[in-house]
Design brief:
single chain; alpha+beta; OB fold (Dihydrolipoamide Acetyltransferase, E2P); five-stranded mixed beta barrel; 2 helices; 33% strand
Amino acid sequence: MTPEEELRRKLKAMFAAPIQVHPGKVVEIDEDAFLATVSINDLNVWFVRMQSISSCDSGIKIWPKIGSIVLVGRIGNSEERLILAYSEIDKIEAKIGDQVLVMTKDGFVINEGKLGGMIKIEELVNRLNAIENYVNDFKSKFSTHYHLCAAPSNPSGTPLGNDPVPSSPIVLLPVEKSQRDPLEDTKVKH
């Protein structure tokens, strides 16, 4: 037998078992073990994997909704089962390295939401620009406003001059306009 024929024979033997995929209804979920109980033909099947590689800490995890319909497949010739497809999902978690994204019906949470909600950058820049315009306008009016002072008096109390003396102008630098770059987290967009 040639090496090609031997490989063909081994592949046929490996995939000779019929593929077994059954629809079922999710009855219960064990969050800690990441396993589900699925009712298939009115028979509860326990320990159905919800993730293909059970010992893996990264990747994608999908939580089916209790009562939803799923397709359950048999893993090779073993007695282990795996959820392959979902009619309804409660939660999805994607983890790559130390980056985690969790999606639910309530929204998206990135890295445990430690930084709070996402900024609506255009609204923030517009609001900051309005405040900066107000401050710059105030500073402009303040720095060009003069207070007239009476002329200094001599010890006898009579004025030394007849004209009022203007105070020195105060120089205030304008506030710079806000830009998107330092405010925007470009790793996350919506």
